[in-house]
Design goal:
DNA polymerase, domain 1
Length: 295
């Protein structure tokens, strides 16, 4: 059974070209399945039916896995058993009838425009690494990038003249994101006045560099965002993805089309983007309640 799991992971890597992180996520689910089936006395994949897979998902649920994580695990099971059927390792796909658990829509946190201004204006570009950190946070908010995308952003993909940055996002999909005037000005200042001082002989073309000349790690970027928020006197828990949520919410509040926001965020499905319409509706209800005489 482990041998077929290995073959499937190799298939995801070589034939599907999926990311290492996705492969790892799938393997974690399938490793749990192999462990569970072994304890239940099953020796081959053909021994498992829909009832057995339902029992496995129930086992994961008892392990405090939330509905969202269960949905992901179910997707892993479905693509794995579909693979086994196509390779004639099993006759019938037992995962096909399984239904995904319902998830409650959790609205993303956002920052208001005043808090964003407070955060960005608190960074002094004349102090050590101030130019880098200001450019980093300006770009986060101006372009709505994911943490991994900003860490992997490279000089050769930045078009300063046309105000665009080419990004490779989830699923190795490439998109062009616009860079706003303030973000571009902060980037220009950092690239001309501070980044050259961080460069070493081993430095790559990553835009954002650590003090040792290497690319900033995701953990370091999270730390920078939190440190800058604390220095700005902001009590709210600030993290990189919060700036992405704020980017999308503020666009919607100011009349941007949902399809445009979907393209800017790099969402494959507009249903993912629609969560921001719920945020906007929530804000409208709060305004109505606070200011209408009979709210």
């Amino acid at each position: 059974m482990e041998f077929q799991v290995d073959g499937f992971i190799l298939y995801l890597a070589t034939e599907r070209g999926l990311s290492t992180a996705y492969q790892l996520s799938v393997r974690q689910t399938l490793d749990k399945l192999v462990e569970w089936t072994s304890k239940q006395g099953y020796k081959e994949w053909r021994d498992l039916g829909t009832d057995e897979l339902s029992a496995f998902l129930g086992h994961l649920r008892k392990g405090d896995l939330d509905a969202s994580s269960l949905r992901i695990a179910l997707v892993h099971l479905k693509i794995f058993f579909r693979f086994l059927q196509k390779r004639n390792h099993i006759e019938i796909d037992p995962a096909e009838p399984l239904l995904a658990p319902k998830t409650s829509a959790k609205l993303p946190e956002t920052l208001n425009a005043e808090t964003i201004t407070q955060l960005l204006s608190s960074i002094n570009p004349e102090k050590k690494l101030g130019k880098r950190d200001l450019a980093l946070l300006e770009l986060f908010y101006a372009s709505g990038l994911r943490l991994s995308e900003i860490c992997n952003a490279r000089l050769e993909f930045l078009d300063i003249d046309d105000h665009f940055l080419r990004i490779t996002g989830k699923g190795n999909k490439t998109r062009l994101v616009p860079v706003g005037e303030k973000a571009l000005a902060a980037l220009n200042c950092y690239l001309t006045s501070e980044r050259p001082n961080l460069v070493t002989r081993k430095t790559s073309s990553h835009i954002f560099l650590s003090i040792r000349g290497g690319p900033l790690s995701p953990d370091r970027v999270r730390q920078i965002v939190k440190e800058r928020a604390k220095q700005a006197g902001i009590d709210q828990n600030i993290y990189p993805h919060l700036l992405r949520h704020s980017f999308a919410t503020h666009l919607l509040e100011n009349g941007a089309d949902l399809r445009v926001i979907q393209e800017l965020l790099g969402h494959a499905d507009i249903a993912t983007t629609q969560i921001y319409t719920h945020v906007d509706q929530k804000r409208l209800k709060a305004v109505h309640k606070n200011f209408h005489p009979r709210g």
